From TrEMBL:
UniProt-listed PANTHER family: MITOCHONDRIAL RIBONUCLEASE P CATALYTIC SUBUNIT, PTHR13547
Superkingdom field: Eukaryota
Domain spans labelled PROP1-like PPR: 90-304
Annotated protein name in UniProt: ribonuclease P
Gene transcribed to yield this protein: LOC108805974
One GO cellular component, as annotated: mitochondrion
Catalytic activity: Endonucleolytic cleavage of RNA, removing 5'-extranucleotides from tRNA precursor
Keywords for the protein's UniProt record, in alphabetical order: Hydrolase, Magnesium, Manganese, Metal-binding, Mitochondrion, Nuclease, Repeat, Transit peptide, tRNA processing, Zinc
Taxonomic path: Eukaryota, Viridiplantae, Streptophyta, Embryophyta, Tracheophyta
GO biological process per UniProt: tRNA 5'-leader removal
Main location: mitochondrion
Boundaries of every PRORP domain copy: 344-571
Intervals holding PPR repeats: 216-250
Family classification: Belongs to the PPR family. P subfamily.
InterPro entries to which the protein is assigned, alphabetical: PPR_rpt (IPR002885), PROP1-like_PPR_dom (IPR033443), PRORP_C (IPR031595), TPR-like_helical_dom_sf (IPR011990)
């Protein structure tokens, strides 16, 4: 991250083609700038340190303008009064400054989708000579790019003033020498697509590199979805290739859009490629994607695609090298597909075709790398000394056969925390443990002191676990999720929790290895009067899109809670298999 706002030096010589287009559009001009003057005049080179590196880069910096939302007057009061202003008074002055008030009002317009009010505020600010910051302009561009369903305006796109004014505002931002960032370009791309111009939206993304800006997934969305809606498959593939080059990983919505445009153009090779990417990146698909895949296998194009003969050894070698569950050699067989919505039994046998799904192994090296990255993240988010102390404790007392998320287990189907239920879970896992050792119970310190923890029976339980080296109390202010997850990964053991692990903390761990690890190690419980405490062990097969050696496909649909809802699978098998 740069410590000062900057343009890249290459843009001091000439505007990029896109901005030349924007600047050639009739527009409002800032009264202090002649339309023909360079928008980069007044900038000069400066050596700035790039935070987090040893790199110093020569970049263009405007030392005459302030591009933040806090006005200069509010930040630097006159010398005669600054000593007399208390911190509270200075904070109040900043909050009540015209720039801050405009920020608050624009934020409200953004939340409510009020394009008309945002444009009125913009016009009023320009009339009053108010200096707009990067943040102001970004909010304005975002509001202007909102689609009809997201705004308070009429449903007719021709009456949406944001579409006609958006690029004028973008141009004025450049004329005012306000440096664009990723959000600026992304909002510009949204605006281009709102005007049914995905080509310009893609141009926006391409120009980010000229500004030294790394595109994000959201930056590509407008262009990719725009081309897909138009049925322009080749341009959609071009956007996808640019994403891959920029190391931006697509998610299910982007892959589903590519799948549908490939289906519409009957590009069987691209459909196959996209299904493999869905298998690798998404694993279990949502209902819209599930329906689209079903539509493909029922189509004539799917029936016509495929090889009549193939090298069996090559297919098997592909399965082995891929870790199982897929071969990646293309469509096998020809002719119509039998497509059925079905379920798997508890052993992973398809109730339709009777094929048994495989359990895909996890590479031990991946596990070690994941444990190392987990440690780094935990030390960033937690007090490092506290987490290092836990690691040392685990080295002395581990390994364990199971780690229990104590807070979660004590609250399943309970109105308040139950030590009795937690103890039942502990006893069950001690019984099934090969070593008959107690599992490790992770509890926050607030759970082990005061309240129910002081009751004699509960205190006796805690003392028993503590004396056996099977209880760890996480320190105040910590997130115990990091502790029980690290313990389970480092001990290579079962993790007992009903936590779905979908919040921000777990998103930090990435989308590739973690879901695979979780599927093979997480144990959940259910509690009912009829069955009492029931353990739900990891499935003996991988819940992921699977491609068999004979070309049969099984596609799982994602569900919120598969303990309550049976998971649907799509079974697609050639009418005549080889």
């Amino acid at each position: 991250m740069l410590r000062a706002t900057c343009f890249t030096p290459s843009l001091s010589r000439a505007c990029c083609p896109l901005f030349a287009l924007i600047l050639s559009t009739p527009s409002l001009h800032h009264p202090h700038h002649h339309p023909s003057s360079s928008p980069f005049r007044g900038y000069h080179y400066s050596s700035l340190h790039v935070k987090g590196t040893r790199d110093k880069r020569r970049i263009l910096v405007d030392h005459n303008r302030h591009l933040c939302t806090i006005p200069e007057a509010a930040k630097q009061p006159p010398a005669s009064t600054s000593e007399n202003l208390s911190r509270k008074a200075r904070k109040k002055a900043i909050q009540q400054s015209p720039e801050s008030m405009l920020k608050q009002k624009l934020d409200m317009c953004s939340r409510n989708g009020n394009v008309v009010e945002a444009l009125r505020l913009y016009d009023e600010a320009k009339r009053n000579g108010l200096q707009l910051s990067q943040y102001h302009y970004n909010v304005l561009l975002y509001v202007c790019s909102l689609t009809d369903g997201e705004t308070e305006s009429s449903s007719s796109s021709s009456t949406n003033p944001g579409l006609s004014r958006g690029f004028d505002i973008f141009k004025q931002m450049i004329v005012d020498k306000v440096v664009p960032n990723e959000a600026t370009f992304t909002n510009g791309a949204r605006l281009a697509v709102a005007k049914d111009d995905p080509e310009m939206a893609f141009d926006m993304v391409k120009q980010m590199k000229a500004f030294g800006i790394q595109p994000r997934l959201r930056s590509y969305g407008p262009a990719l979805f725009g081309f897909c809606r138009k049925g322009d498959a080749e341009k959609a593939y071009e956007v996808d290739a640019h994403m891959i080059e920029s190391e931006v990983v697509p998610e299910e919505p982007e892959l589903t859009a590519l799948l549908k445009v490939s289906m519409d153009t009957k590009n069987a090779e691209k459909v196959y490629e996209t299904l493999q990417r869905l298998r690798d990146l998404v694993r279990q698909v949502s209902k819209p994607t599930f329906d689209a895949i079903e539509e493909w296998f029922e189509s004539e194009a799917a029936a016509e695609a495929g090889a009549e003969k193939w090298d069996v050894k090559k297919i098997r070698d592909g399965v082995v090298s891929g870790g199982g569950g897929w071969h990646g050699q293309g469509w096998l067989g020809t002719g119509k597909w039998n497509v059925t919505r079905t379920e798997m039994d508890e052993n992973g046998v398809c109730k339709c075709c009777r094929e048994k799904l495989v359990c895909i192994d996890i590479n031990p090296v991946e596990t070690e790398n994941f444990a190392a990255s987990l440690t780094r993240l935990a030390c960033q988010k937690e007090v490092k000394a506290s987490f290092n102390q836990f690691q040392e404790w685990l080295e002395r007392h581990g390994p364990f056969d199971a780690v229990i998320d104590g807070a979660n287990m004590g609250l399943v189907n309970q109105r308040s925390f139950s030590f009795f239920q937690l103890n039942n879970v502990v006893q069950r896992f001690q019984q099934i443990s090969p070593s008959k050792r107690l599992p490790l119970v992770i509890l926050h310190r607030s759970r082990v002191v005061g309240g129910p923890a002081t009751y004699p029976k509960n205190r006796a339980l805690l003392e028993k676990w503590k004396n056996a080296g099977a209880l760890y109390a996480t320190p105040p202010g910590s997130n115990d999720d990091w502790y029980w997850l690290y313990a389970a990964v480092s001990c290579k053991c079962l993790l007992v929790t009903n936590d779905e692990m979908r919040d921000h903390l777990f998103q930090l761990l990435g989308t590739s290895f973690f879901p695979r690890w979780k599927e093979k190690h997480q144990v959940r419980i259910s509690v009912s009067r009829e069955e009492g405490l029931k353990l739900h062990m990891p499935p003996p097969y991988s819940i992921i899109i699977q491609e068999s050696e004979d070309g049969t496909w099984h596609v799982p649909m994602s569900v919120e809670d598969d303990l309550q809802t049976s998971r649907q699978w799509l079974c697609a098998r050639r009418s005549q298999t080889h």
